[in-house]
Design a protein that fits this description.
The radius of gyration is 24 Å and the shape is globular. The two termini are 31 Å apart. Helix 7 (197-205) runs antiparallel to helix 8 and helix 9 packs antiparallel against helix 10 (313-327). By secondary structure, the protein is α+β, with helices and mostly antiparallel strands. A hairpin with a 6-residue loop joins strand 20 and strand 21 (490-498). Helices cover 35% and strands 28% of the residues. It has a twelve-stranded antiparallel sheet with strand order 14-15-13-16-18-17-20-21-19-22-24-23, sandwiched between helices. The structure holds adenosine-5'-diphosphate, aspartic acid and magnesium ion (MG). Adenosine-5'-diphosphate (ADP) binds at residues 9-12, 41, 151, 173-175, 178-179, 181-184, 208-210.
Length: 593
C-alpha cells in the first residue's frame, strides 16, 4: 500500500469545521487505498499569538523556552484532528515530533532535522490508523523540544514523505497552488500547473511564503513530488517536481521579501579574509545573509553590503560591531526600511537581456534600485519598502507573467539534478550525519570573463537600465551583475562579460560615464568565476564562511559574490582561478555527490 502525506496549514485547521473537513479528506484518501499521514500546523494565527504573548513578557525570550511555547500550537491541533477522525468512525493517532522520533540539532527556533524514526508511524499505519503528526517540531539529543523555523510544517511534511517513501506529498493551503507571484499582492498572478524544485526553491528563498524553502530542499534531495492545493476545493493544484512548467520563458515567477534590512560595513581593509571575518561572525549567530555585494576596493579599502531579514538585524549588528573592531574598519551603516524583489527562471541562463528588462520596467515607474545581484536563475534588487508592492507588480507585468507559457517542458530541467545525481544525493544523504546536511553537486571554474565596473553612478532611478541597454545594444552578453549601495549619492555597478568583449565594453562604459556624470570606469581583463552548486547553499550559513575562509587561507581575494538557494558564485582574480578551484574542491570533498 502506498503512503500519502497530507499537510494542512494554519488556515486549513482554523476552526472545528475546517478540522472536520480536513479529517474527511484524509479519510477519503485512506478509503482510496492509501496509508495516510497527516501533518498539521497550529490553528489559524495561534503561533503568532504565542509569539506576541512572549513579547509581552520579554524582548529577548530564551530560544529554548520559545520552542517549548510555540510547539504547543501544533499539539492542540493534532489532538483535535485525531478526535475529528475518530468522530467520523476511523482510527487515528496523534503524535508530537518527539513521539515520532524527529531528531534535530539544538539550534532552537531554527533547528535542522538530523534523523526521523519511521518505526512508530509504520506500526500505526499497519494497524490501519491515520497518523497525525505535529508539524514544525522535533526534539534534540538531550530531549529538548525544538522548532524548525516559521512555516516549518511544510518541511516536516516533505521530510516524512521522504523517509516513508511516499509517492506524493500534498500541501493543503488557502490558495489553490503556486502562482507566478503572491496573488494577494498582485491579483493578476497566474496559477501554475507545475514548477521545478530549483525555481520553487529560489522563489521561496526570495520571499514566496507559500512554501518553506527547506521543504523544497528535502523534496529535491529525495525526489519527493509535492502537490500544493486548496483545502477548500478539489481543483488540481501545482506540482513541484524536477521539470519546470516551460523552458521557453526566461522568467517563471517573481517574489517579494518585504521586511529586509541592508547593512554596509564601511572602509574594510581589502585583504584576503576580511569578508570571512564579517560573515563568520554573522553565521555564528545563525543568521543567513543574502545579496552580498563588495564594491571594488578604492585606496585599499572596500565596502561590503548585504541584506538580512529585518528580524535578524539586532543579532547581525552585534556581529558586525565585533567584526568592525577586529578588522579596523571604519564602521557600518544600515537601512531597515527596504524590500527585496526577485525574478526567477531556469530559462534565464540562456537568454540575454532579462536583467535589462527588469531594470527598464522599474525605471519607467521611477523606482530607484538600491542594490542588485544576479545568479544564473535569479535577479534580485533592493528597493525602498514604500515601493515594494508596486515594484513587484511592475516586474510581473514586464515579463507578462499573467500569460500562460507557450509550451510545456519536454526534457529535464537544466538547473535541477538529473536522475543519476538525485539518486547519488539520496545515497549520500543516507551516509550523512543529518538529513539536512549540505550537499554539493558541483564546483565549476569559468575563467573566460572580464570585469567592468562603472564607478560613482548617481543614485537615482534609471541608471542600471541605461548601462545594460547600452551594453546589450553593443551585442555583449552580460553574466553576473552586482550593484553596491549608493554612498554620498553614488553607487558602483560591476558586471562580467566575455574577455573578447572587454575593450568594446570599456569604451562604452567610458562614454556613458561621461554622459551620466560618473567617475572613470575600472576593469579587470581576466577574472575567474567559481560556482559552487548544491542543496542547502544559503540556509547553511557555514557554507559562505568555509568558502571565504579557505580562499583567504590560500591568500585569494574575493572580488564579487552572488548567492542563491542552489548556487554560490565568487569572482576572483583570473590568475588564481585554478588554485581557487582546487582549494574549494578540497574544502568540500566530504559534501560532494
Ligand atoms: P499555510 O498556513 O497553509 O502554510 P501560508 O500562509 O504559509 O499557508 O502560505 C499560503 C500563502 O502564501 C497564500 O495565501 C499567499 O498569499 C502566499 N503566497 C506568496 N507567494 C505565493 C505564490 N507565489 N503562490 C501562491 N501563494 C503565495
Ligand atoms: N505553526 C508554525 C508557524 O506558524 C509552523 C507552520 O504553520 O508551518 O510558523
Ligand atoms: Mg506555510
Amino acid at each position: 500500500m502506498s503512503v500519502l502525506v497530507q499537510k494542512f496549514g494554519g488556515t486549513s485547521v482554523a476552526d472545528s469545521k475546517k478540522i472536520l473537513a480536513a479529517a474527511r479528506k484524509a479519510i477519503r484518501a485512506k478509503m482510496e487505498g492509501n496509508q495516510v499521514v497527516m501533518v498539521v500546523s497550529a490553528m489559524g494565527h495561534a503561533t503568532d499569538l504565542l509569539v506576541d504573548l512572549a513579547k509581552e513578557i520579554t524582548d529577548e525570550p530564551p530560544a529554548r523556552e520559545m520552542d517549548m511555547l510555540l510547539s504547543t500550537g501544533e499539539q492542540v491541533s493534532v489532538a483535535l484532528m485525531a478526535m475529528a477522525v475518530h468522530s467520523l468512525g476511523h482510527e487515528a493517532v496523534s503524535l508530537t515530533g518527539a513521539q515520532i522520533g524527529i531528531v534535530t540539532d539544538s539550534t532552537h527556533t531554527k533547528a535542522r532535522i538530523r534523523s526521523i524514526s519511521t518505526e512508530r508511524m509504520r506500526k500505526a499505519l499497519k494497524e490501519g490508523k491515520i497518523v497525525i503528526a505535529a508539524g514544525f517540531q522535533g526534539v534534540d539529543e538531550h530531549n529538548n523540544i525544538t522548532t524548525l523555523g516559521r512555516g516549518g510544517s511544510d518541511t516536516t511534511a516533505v521530510a516524512l514523505a521522504a523517509v516513508l517513501g511516499a509517492g506524493n506529498c500534498e500541501i493543503y493551503t488557502d490558495v489553490d497552488g503556486v502562482y507566478t507571484t503572491d496573488p494577494r499582492v498582485v491579483p493578476e498572478a497566474r496559477h501554475m500547473k507545475q514548477i521545478s524544485y530549483d525555481e520553487m526553491l529560489e522563489l521561496a528563498g526570495a520571499g514566496a511564503g507559500v512554501m518553506h524553502s527547506r521543504s523544497i530542499e528535502f523534496a529535491k534531495k529525495f525526489s519527493v513530488p509535492i502537490h500544493v492545493r486548496s483545502s477548500f476545493s478539489d481543483n488540481p493544484g501545482t506540482m513541484i517536481v524536477a521539470e519546470p512548467e516551460s523552458r521557453d520563458v526566461p522568467v517563471c515567477g517573481a517574489a517579494m521579501a518585504k521586511n529586509e534590512a541592508r547593512v554596509t560595513v564601511l572602509k574594510v581593509p581589502d585583504r584576503p579574509g576580511a569578508a570571512m571575518t564579517i560573515f563568520s561572525r554573522i553565521a555564528a549567530r545563525n543568521v543567513a545573509t543574502d545579496m552580498i555585494v563588495q564594491n571594488v576596493a578604492e585606496n585599499g579599502d572596500a565596502e561590503i553590503s548585504f541584506t538580512v531579514f529585518r528580524d535578524d538585524l539586532p543579532a547581525t549588528l552585534k556581529a558586525v560591531e565585533e567584526a568592525v573592531r577586529e578588522l579596523g574598519a571604519e564602521g557600518y551603516s544600515y537601512d531597515d526600511d527596504v524590500s527585496k524583489i526577485s525574478v526567477v527562471g531556469t530559462g534565464m541562463a540562456t537568454r540575454p537581456g532579462v536583467a535589462q528588462t527588469m531594470f527598464r520596467a522599474l525605471a519607467e515607474k521611477g523606482i530607484n534600485i538600491l542594490m542588485i545581484t544576479t545568479s544564473e536563475i535569479k535577479i534580485s534588487v533592493v528597493v525602498s519598502r514604500d515601493h515594494a508592492a508596486e515594484a513587484l507588480r511592475t516586474v510581473h507585468q514586464a515579463f507578462q507573467l499573467d500569460q500562460p507559457p507557450p509550451e510545456p517542458a519536454a526534457a529535464a530541467a537544466a538547473g535541477a539534478m538529473g536522475a543519476g545525481q538525485a539518486k547519488a544525493a539520496v545515497n549520500l544523504a543516507a551516509r550523512m550525519a543529518g538529513m539536512e546536511d549540505l550537499i554539493i553537486s558541483g564546483i565549476e571554474l569559468d575563467d573566460t570573463q572580464a570585469r567592468v565596473t562603472v564607478v560613482g553612478v548617481p543614485d537615482k532611478a534609471g541608471m542600471a537600465a541605461r548601462i545594460f541597454e547600452e551594453v546589450s545594444g553593443a551585442g555583449v552578453v552580460v553574466d553576473m551583475i552586482v550593484q553596491s549601495v549608493g554612498h554620498d549619492g553614488r553607487a558602483d555597478v560591476s558586471f562580467t562579460v566575455p574577455q573578447k568583449d572587454l575593450d568594446k565594453c570599456l569604451k562604452l562604459a567610458r562614454d556613458l560615464s561621461k554622459k551620466l556624470g560618473c567617475d572613470a570606469p575600472e576593469s579587470c581583463p581576466k577574472v575567474a568565476k567559481l560556482a559552487v552548486s548544491g542543496v542547502g547553499m544559503r540556509s547553511h550559513t557555514i557554507l559562505a564562511r568555509r568558502m571565504f575562509q579557505s580562499l583567504a587561507d590560500a591568500k585569494i581575494n574575493v572580488d564579487m559574490i552572488s548567492t542563491s538557494e542552489v548556487r554560490v558564485n565568487v569572482v576572483v582574480d583570473g590568475d588564481h582561478g585554478r588554485k581557487a578551484l582546487e582549494v574549494l574542491k578540497k574544502e568540500f570533498a566530504e559534501a560532494m555527490v
